[in-house]
Amino acid sequence: MSDSTVDVTKKHHSFGRKLKYGIGFSLLIVLIIGGMYWKKVSNKPKEEYSQWSKPVPVRIVPVQRNNLDVEIKAIGTVIPVHTVNVQSQVSGVLQRVHFKEGQWVRKGQLLAQIDPAPFIVALAQAEGTRQQNLAQLQNAENELSRYQLLFKQDSIAKQQVEQQQALVNQLKGQIQSNRAQVDAAKLQLSYSKIYSPIEGRVGFKQKDVGNLIQANESTALVTITQVHPIYVQFAIAENHLAGLRETIKSGQQVKVSAWDKAEQQQLAVGHVQALDNQIDVSTGTLKLKATFDNRDDRLFPNQFVNVRLNAQTIQNAVSIPSDAVQHGAKGTYVYIINKDHKAEIRSLKLGLSSNGQIEVLAGLDGTEKVVLEGIDRLSDGKEVQIISDEQKHRPVTESATG
To answer: Boundaries of each Multidrug resistance protein MdtA-like barrel-sandwich hybrid domain copy (predicted)?
Structure first.
């Protein structure tokens, strides 16, 4: 190998080493600069931002101070004022039925006819016996008159007169008994016609024409219910008893309204008729009976209805919506909004509730505003943003430039 070739090779290796060292040095410079930049960036203070740090949007309602009508809700059963099971008082064949099932009948209206033939015969027999005894009595009285005349003439003994007088008295007693037998036969004959004892609506008949009816049997011929007026029976908790009794003692009628099962339609309006004489110890409730005119037949016997009872009126009561009340370890409380637009906790002592409103006995004076919605994000001293009903229901629109 020539010397020139060796020199070229040495130069080539020397250039390669210099190039490698240059690249490594450049990478080292880049790493140093990058590290310094990262340190600078990482040490820069971060901007504090959190959705929870913003004021909490809430909806508020003012505390009310007015008369609070305490309304009690219960489940009631419609019951007739009178229910009569019509039965025959005599035995016989059912001859005719004078009503239609479900028909409205008046008091004293003829409902059915039992075959009267046996009772007509019994009446005739009783009257015949009475006439026979009347004839014997008349003859005995005539004999007594003759005996008394003969006794005055001293023609017969006094004993004969007394015996004849006794016979007359005996026949008079028989006549009185005969009269009672005739009246009994007439009464039995009258029982062959069955009349309605009350005004009301008849149900389904239980006996068809041609059947033998037994007197006072367990199965009634038909049932009649009086529904004008009509009762609704229900029960309330015993803690409402004191206020209810005070209202009744004051002479006021306690209003009661009956609603359908869905509580969407009011069926009738009435008033409390009577309170039971004792509390049911097993349930802690008191039974009440309310009366309704029911001329439109909206209430039907044995129907279940929802009852709303206006038990009492609390004058000048401080009240708030029941949904605003919170329950915690320290008792019941609400959030109010102070003048700095911050939430503040107020502990409460509560009274009776009605129609979504609850009476506040202590804790509020009636001038505050309580939080109704947005409570889950609130805490004592938290700043709030009050949302009006218009803002709450305002539709959200997209920005045209967004």
So the answer is: 83-225
| CATH number of the structural domain 116-191 | 1.10.287
DSSP 8-state assignment for residue 247 = H
pLDDT number for residue 243: 80
Q: 39 burial class (0-12, 13-18, 19+ CB within 10 angstroms)?
A: exposed
Cα angle: 216, vertex 222, 224; to 5 degrees: 110
CATH class of 71-80+223-313: mainly beta
Measure Cα distances from 239 to 71, 104, 345 in Å.
Answer: 13, 42, 29
pLDDT tens-place string over residues 43-102: 554 444 455 567 888 888 888 888 887 788 899 999 999 999 999 999 999 999 999 999
Tell me the angle at which helices 117-152 and 158-190 cross, rounded to the nearest 10 degrees: 160
Residue 297 has pLDDT above 50, yes or no: yes
Among 62, 64, 60, smallest CA distance to 387 is for 60
- The CATH architecture that domain 57-68+317-392 belongs to is Beta Barrel (2.40)
